[in-house]
Design a protein that fits this description.
The protein is of the alpha/beta class. Helix content is about 35%, strand content about 20%. It is built from eleven helices and 14 strands. It has helices at about 1-5, 10-25, 55-65, 95, 100-105, 120-125, 195-205, 250-260, 275-290, 300-305, 325-345; strands at about 40-45, 70-75, 85, 110-115, 135-140, 150-155, 185-190, 215-220, 225, 240-245, 265-270, 295-300, 315, 320-325. Helix 5 packs across helix 10 (about 300-305). The chain starts with a helix and ends with a helix.
């Protein structure tokens, strides 16, 4: 695979030139970018793959939902519907997409919608009888048609964008120079014990501008599973575990279970996978093969919304993220932006 990626380097150069020209057209005002009067916060990344956008959106929702009417707008990747769609009890996970459906089921007081055309999606949200006061745009860093008021760029600790190259040789959707559009850069999936010296070294690698704030976050796995069997993670050493994942990078979760000395059978599927009856049979057979009275099928929270009506007795582990060292500073930047933006209306 690495050899194939290397020989595709000329295509990376071409792709990089195309995205550079596109960004220049937006920066120069030749291509239109719409700015809305309400606060709009964009969360995204420069690379393909999992950088932790979903828990970052959830962190923002928790921070803002008790004070403002919040809406989350996604494109609904791999959903089986088109156009603008507002989450409601009548809308299925297949129609909405797994991550938006997770937001909808988890937070009862927010609006969740999907639309590949983000400008149109925001317009539709603002036309509602009770419109939102803030819109969080999920995975919209390259969607230049919306001019976000606050732009948050995510990059994983073990795969910084400064060490990557353009598609198809690397994983970057655009040049690392695109990082300059962000007001906040968050290095995600860090070790909890990441020292201040190591953080300073990463900051030096990222070379933020004077106006950019760099934060570091870590994944926090909840200690109690939810779903069919609400057992504690510490008790799983006594279970035969089948772990089912359909996420971009399951390695942090595997490492978490490994540190807890939990042995498991891992069934790994592609990100946003639509589980078929055949897949369900494989999962059930894997569980049946475990010779123990105590056995369990565990999945991620994102996969649970797609599997809960297909796999009986399914449990899931939920996650949050924690900003290391400077959570209060991060919260203040977000709330200051929201208040200032609302005050300028």
């Amino acid at each position: 695979m690495n050899f194939i990626r290397k020989i595709l380097y000329p295509f990376s150069f071409i792709y990089g030139m195309v995205t550079t020209v596109r960004n220049w057209l937006y920066d120069a005002g030749i291509k239109k970018s719409t700015k809305f009067k309400i606060p709009t916060i964009i969360v995204g990344n420069l690379s393909v793959g999992g950088t932790g956008k979903t828990p970052q959106i959830e962190l923002l929702v928790r921070l803002l939902k008790d004070r403002y009417k919040v809406a989350v707008l996604s494109r609904g990747y791999k959903r089986k519907s088109t156009g603008f769609l507002l989450a409601s009890p009548e809308v299925s996970v297949e129609e909405l997409g797994d991550e938006p459906f997770q937001f909808y089921t988890k937070f009862s007081t927010i609006l969740v919608a999907v639309d590949a055309r983000r400008v149109h999606g925001i317009q539709q949200l603002l036309a509602l009888e009770t419109p939102p006061e803030i819109v969080l745009l999920d995975d919209a860093y390259q969607h230049r048609k919306v001019q976000g008021g606050c732009v948050i760029l995510l990059t994983p600790y073990d795969d910084l964008y400064v060490n990557d190259s353009m598609l198809p040789t690397g994983n970057l959707r655009e040049s690392s120079r695109g990082a300059k559009r962000a007001q906040v850069i968050i290095v995600t999936k860090c070790p909890f014990n990441l020292s201040l010296e190591a953080q300073a070294d990463i900051r030096n690698q990222l070379k933020p501008t004077l106006s950019q704030n760099v934060f570091f976050s870590a994944i926090v796995y909840e200690e109690q599973l939810l779903g069919a069997q609400e057992v504690y993670v510490s008790d799983l050493v006594n279970y035969k575990v089948v772990l089912v994942t359909g996420i971009a990078n399951p390695n942090p979760l595997l490492d978490f279970f490994k540190t807890r000395n939990i042995s498991l059978t891992h069934l790994n599927y592609p990100d946003h996978h639509h589980f078929t009856p055949s897949d369900v049979s494989v999962i059930q057979n894997a569980l049946s093969a475990q010779k123990s009275k105590k056995k369990i099928v565990i999945t991620t929270e994102k996969d649970y919304v797609r599997l809960k009506n297909k796999v009986p007795n399914l449990s899931y582990i939920s996650i949050k993220i924690k900003i290391l060292n400077h959570q209060g500073d991060f919260n203040q930047i977000i709330t200051d932006y929201v208040e200032q933006s609302r005050g300028n209306r």
